[in-house]
Amino acid sequence: MEGDICRTEFTAGEEHQGWNGYMHGGLIAALLDETMAWWLWFKGISVMTAEMTTRYSLGVPVKTKITVESWCEEEKRNRLFLMAGRIVLPGGKTAVNARAKFLKIDPAQI
Predict the structure, then answer these.
(1) What is the pTM of this model?
(2) Which of 23, 49, 60, 62 is the most buried (most CB within 10 A)?
(3) CB 59 within 8 A of CB 75
(4) What is the C-alpha separation between 107 and 23, in angstroms, rounded?
(5) What are phi and psi of 20, to 5 degrees?
(6) Residue 84: is its pLDDT beyond 80?
């Protein structure tokens, strides 16, 4: 956590490719989902993903260190969390944006 942003770095290998030289979109979505969930986890909130929308603007090259960021945009009724995240390429361009809804859960019920 850096302030109110959850941030991590990742470098995809060739085994993470979809198209030649670019990271697979499903793995990109998984990185975003995890980083948004970790923002909540760091706040002591147990959640499950309810819905996620991912918008791909630029390819994410393999063998390149990327930054994954997430933050909370809104909390509704202390049960639903509206989260956002993005993949930032070296140089600062945003390659992928995501928005998701996470439902608060009782870990004892899992």
Answers:
(1) 0.93
(2) 23
(3) no
(4) 33
(5) -50, 120
(6) yes
Distance CA 15, CA 17 (A): 6
Q: What is the DSSP string of 30-43?
A: HHHHHHHHHHHHHT
Are 36 and 83 spatial neighbours (Cβ–Cβ below 8 Å)? Answer: yes
Strands across the sheet containing 47-56: 6-11, 65-76, 80-88, 94-104, 47-56
Q: Are 73 and 24 in contact (CB under 8 A)?
A: no
Type of residue found at 62: V
**pLDDT over 80 at 57, yes or no:** yes
Phi, psi of 77 (to 5 degrees): 55, 30
Residue 64 tokens, joined: 């390149």
